[in-house]
């Protein structure tokens, strides 16, 4: 992959939880305004790697991290950049939709407030984010209703709206469809593909069909290491390593 076009990258990453090493000499890069799928069997370290990029392990006392994490050329762990700024620039969407127990409006307003977006601009930003996330038509008359009353798929689109409202440069998605039915999943997939125009997206998925439907690039991990990466069609169609071939063909995992 051409270094120039890489938006997010990591090198020489080792991570331990207590004495257990979970990431081993990881080097990876994610191209700008593309979708990259991160695949691999349960427990291989996909979520752990994703969380490193927006400094989610800082709160975990038993996590020890080594390595370099860059957004463009900026060091994400530099003293000059706060975790709040990192999380504004690198949004995250989780496996279980996790709206705050507040109104639909307030779910998005909260992030704008803590990032000092002027009050007068917020209503417009909230409307745009909901439109951009294909949920506006379903909630426009219910903005003051509790977000927890939305369906699972709607909650996940609201969480995506919450992320895009802050105009991040990257959106990390950790199995965003795993709790959803096929119809909601296909709506989210359509949304992710649309968002690629403006954002660099990394998605962890166990769904091999999903990776092939939406991802330009695919990275395969196993036991804390990157085994193979490349164009999605190559990883699934003609992988170089037997381990990759066995995994994508469903022989383990
Ligand atoms: N906070 C933590 N403390 C201790 N161990 C952890 C912690 N978080 C994850 N682990 C361990 O690190 C390893 C990697 O977990 P991780 O969640 O990154 O894997 P994964 O590839 O995302 O798995 P899955 O596909 O099942 O979500 C696992 O062995 C897990 O038990």
From TrEMBL:
Record's keyword terms, sorted: ATP-binding, Nucleotide-binding, Phosphate transport, Transport
Q: What name does the UniProt record give this protein?
A: Phosphate ABC transporter, ATPase subunit
Whether ATP-binding counts among this entry's keywords is yes
Q: Which PANTHER family match?
A: ABC TRANSPORTER I FAMILY MEMBER 17
Which residues are in the ABC transporter domain? 8-248
Q: Which Pfam families match?
A: ABC_tran
GO MF term set: ATP binding; ATP hydrolysis activity; phosphate transmembrane transporter activity
Q: Name one GO biological process term.
A: phosphate ion transmembrane transport
Write down any Gene Ontology CC term: membrane
Instruction: Look up the domain of life of the source.
Output: Bacteria
